[in-house]
Structure prediction request, 513 residues.
Amino acid sequence: MAGVVIIGAGHGGTQLAAGLRDEGYAGTIDLISADPDHPYHKPPLSKSFMKAEDAPLQPLRAPVFFADKDIRLHLGQTATGIDRAAKTVTLADGATLPYAALVLATGTEARRLTLPGHDLPGVHTLRTASDARALRGALPGVARVVVIGGGFIGLEAAAMLAGRGIAVTVAELAPRLLGRAASAEVAQAVAHELEALGVRVLTGVSVEAIEGEGRVAAVRLGTEVLAADLVIVGIGAVPVDGLARAADLTVENGVVVDAHLATSDPHIFALGDCASFPAPGNGRHMRLESVQNATDQARALAATLAGKPTAYGAVPWFWSDIGPMKLQIAGLIGAADEAITTHGADGRLKSVYHLAAGRLVAVETLNSAGEHMLARRLLTDGVTPPRDVLATGDAARIKAAWQDLTATA
Amino acid sequence: MTKITFIEPNGTRREIEAADGQSVMLAATGAGIDGISAECGGSCICATCHCLVIDAPQDLPEMEDTERDTLEFTSDAMQDNSRLTCQVEVTPALDGAVFQVVGH
Ligand SMILES: Cc1cc2nc3c(=O)[nH]c(=O)nc-3n(C[C@H](O)[C@H](O)[C@H](O)COP(=O)(O)OP(=O)(O)OC[C@H]3O[C@@H](n4cnc5c(N)ncnc54)[C@H](O)[C@@H]3O)c2cc1C
Prediction:
């Protein structure tokens, strides 16, 4: 009998396979992975994996896990087509798999630069284990690196390379780092941290070309030419939605799903980086690229596919390690109209509480793990402590206020 | 190699041989111990590698602030013997230790 077929064995697909068994699903599970490496954690690729030559990939689940749980992992196999009428998936090797439920967990791929020189040897992107190995392997002898784009992955890599004694310049087109992913206050604190690590941060600069004879030698900006032995392009990611398009599913900034993560075909679902889902609250479609989003959506869908329909509605959270700085974000800053900032004893920014129409909607913290964990609980409970309490940035006082508010609620 | 025992959420006891120098979380997930999803991959953020130290031949090294804060405000109540195993290194001093998985 046909069971669940999952395309993509990243954070979302792997958690879904595990979650189905946790939920008691007893049918077949086929987990198809275009990536030839055993399923691994992606966040360390721009963090600890770059630090040491011999740092291994970190498995999402041990190989024995897949065997124990009777999950058929098809490594290095690309799904090439979906036949919705026959309810089958075709693989690159010609095999055809029938499905009762099909799940697209295909993630994102690096957005490509289209400038002159974008394909010179020495120009790297960083999304997969093989990207990370190629980058790490190219580092010996490299003295100068230019990172194009001031997003999380590029900034983490910049901090890591600076820590290895490499001269790093970040070139960002926008007037500040991190775009809409973080507030201006946090973006500035991150820029200061990078500068303290020795990274040169250029914002509001446009890259005109990557130059070099046979391999990269420089990055030409409007204003100056930056010498470079290696270039990392980190200008964002685009959803992998080709299979969904070819199968005529609704696609708009990712594969469009409803609150139960079903696409426009009720037998096909999508989750994680590639899915555009209705935001709990306002129902507007959005797409998030984070481990939390992929794994929590996988948990919800595992329950649904195991017979317990579950709408997705978790509070989003995210983290980034930029050198020694731990940035954590709970909630979505988008709609906020008021920000309360707190500072540590050293005068440095510690947290930003974002409110929309007086309600807490997001909290950014820097090296303040307790406040972050607490923020997730405040947001889950929909509780907004008084402004003067938030302004203390004192986790113990905020916790007391939260306990008061939930006790009386 | 250091012998560590885990008690999985369903009560199963499993002893593993862990290589020194890695984190207890990595040793556990590498051996397929149930209940530790280690969502953040060891960044001391998600608290899904939370375990209780049931037995340890020697005291474990003290927690750092980040681990303490993350545990203190996590939703699975922190106990006196709580640890985030991504922050505990496998060393010969752990030989014979027993961890109960709280996990997630
Ligand atoms: C370097 C790096 C650092 C990151 N750091 C952080 C961080 O600190 N915090 C955070 O929250 N998030 C971070 N992220 C983002 C996080 O890794 C993603 O949000 C998460 O991996 C999304 O999970 P997913 O399952 O949707 O997609 P992925 O994990 O990307 O998995 C998708 C998989 O689908 C496979 N696939 C695609 N098409 C096919 C096909 N046709 N057939 C078969 N297989 C296919 C791909 O090979 C891939 O393995 C980082 C990402 C990267 C790349």
